[in-house]
Amino acid sequence: MKLLAVGTVAYDAIETPFGKTDKILGGAATYIGLAASKLGTEVNIISVVGGDFQQKYLDLLENHKIGIQGIEKVEDGKTFFWSGIYHEDMNSRDTLVTELNVLESFNPVIPEDLKNSEVLMLGNLHPAVQLSVIEQMSEKPKLIVLDTMDFWMNSTLDLLLKVIAKVDVITINDSEARQLSGEFSLVKAAKKIQQLGPKFVVIKKGEHGALLFHKEQVFFAPAMPLEEILDPTGAGDSFAGGMTGYLAKSEDFAFENLKKAIIVGSALASYTVEKFGVERLVELTQQEFESRLESFKTLTSYDYNI
Amino acid sequence: MKLLAVGTVAYDAIETPFGKTDKILGGAATYIGLAASKLGTEVNIISVVGGDFQQKYLDLLENHKIGIQGIEKVEDGKTFFWSGIYHEDMNSRDTLVTELNVLESFNPVIPEDLKNSEVLMLGNLHPAVQLSVIEQMSEKPKLIVLDTMDFWMNSTLDLLLKVIAKVDVITINDSEARQLSGEFSLVKAAKKIQQLGPKFVVIKKGEHGALLFHKEQVFFAPAMPLEEILDPTGAGDSFAGGMTGYLAKSEDFAFENLKKAIIVGSALASYTVEKFGVERLVELTQQEFESRLESFKTLTSYDYNI
């Protein structure tokens, strides 16, 4: 199946306790696309960049067989730019700069031949943009996955709830799940969020892994304990890209297969954070990917005969 | 094998967002003993209480077939008392009262027929007391497990390091592992702590589960996502009691069996927090315990064919 990913393609400038970058390639759709491409999934990006966006980055995406015909280039505009600094625990960060630039007036246009994409991944963006994409699809996608954040809950909750009502899977972090549901217990939060529409609720807990809820069932995917995390940027998007890439490739949206999909997402995210920006994801080989899947298996498997 | 558990038997007064108790039965050795007893392990407690300690609580321990001959009763003294209040996230708490009372001059005396206990669980106590217990053993136990906390790192690190050098397994929480090792990465922290003596390092992350490190290997036991946590008191000790109770019963200290042991510990801890104090652990049935083990299996198992 074809995966369509909507989200930012951006410049990031990142500082962590381990280093600092100039403007480098970033953005939700970038990470989603690269992660999904590692699974051999046909993935296309809908996004917008400015005239300052370097051709080498578009080439990099194309070299990963990512469809970029849906990336609009506004020649007299500037690319979305985010700059942030991570604290020592890497779980919290301060935003230094957010320049929306071309994103401010982004009106996504889906090319005709992508309107029948079977899996739609809505990266974190204004809910109005996410809604517009859903409405442009010629057929209802077989699976719609939504990523969002507290910013939209605070600024445009009504519109966000409209989007949430239309999706099959929502990915959200733990504090956002609590905010959206008004429940402190994640089990209760996931139940309430399912009532808003999504059949599957994925709660991301960063270095503490991710929970997948569906009806009364729950699955937990750990995060891989790593010697070093250089830069957490893009971990959540790599997770989403790995997950949706796997689902599109395997064409199976049952709970059992979603479990596998979030393990795949966790594996790719665990590589992303090992270097700054997209570097580690770009250089990742099939063999390394499989070896990490094996590590995930080892991490939680035990003899059930207790 | 016989399990010998050293630790506090105490009164606790607890307040959480869900309620408040008067002085109730508490203490590390209490939870360790009760948890271990659920596995049918022969467990004996070394501790001290005051003349104010209610007979009904000693009866409760005996009814669970826990050996209490090693619990010294100081008739003119008062039982150790702790009072605390938990914040909404249940991960942090403020201590309101700590009255050491009879614990202040606690000089543990191990009854002769317990000096050959094969498994020794050193609950969180002054390292001098822990060391005294190790030295009183007539034969070196086949397995020594240590629980400790930052308080002893800050106040008597040298002595604590002497104890750490003598144990096989250390259980410690994530921030304490970071403090003890000077490493932020838990993978690096666990490596450094192994160099201090313990072959196995268990890092407890509360609601985020526990990591078991041994040489280059790592295993992760999740915490069970629960609808409601009423009182986290005793979770860590129930974990330690379940773990050592299982190890003593199964008489197998290999890495593969330690994995199972920390799943057992996690399962018992997940019950403890469902009610205040020891209530849930006391009423826990074998059938419920097995059902929770099944839930743990379901929580992380997936089809490895990805």
UniProtKB/TrEMBL annotation, chains A, B:
Q: Quick one: a GO cellular component term?
A: cytosol
* Cleaved signal peptide residues: none
Q: Name one GO molecular function term.
A: kinase activity
**Which protein, by its recorded name, is this?**
Sugar kinase
Q: What is the lineage of its organism?
A: Bacteria, Pseudomonadati, Bacteroidota, Flavobacteriia, Flavobacteriales
InterPro entries reported in the protein's UniProt record: Carboh/pur_kinase_PfkB_CS, PfkB_dom, Ribokinase-like
Species the sequence originates in: Apibacter muscae
| Boundaries of every Carbohydrate kinase PfkB domain copy | 19-279
Keyword Kinase: yes or no? Answer: yes
**Keyword NAD included in the entry's annotation:** no
> Keywords assigned by UniProt?
Kinase, Transferase
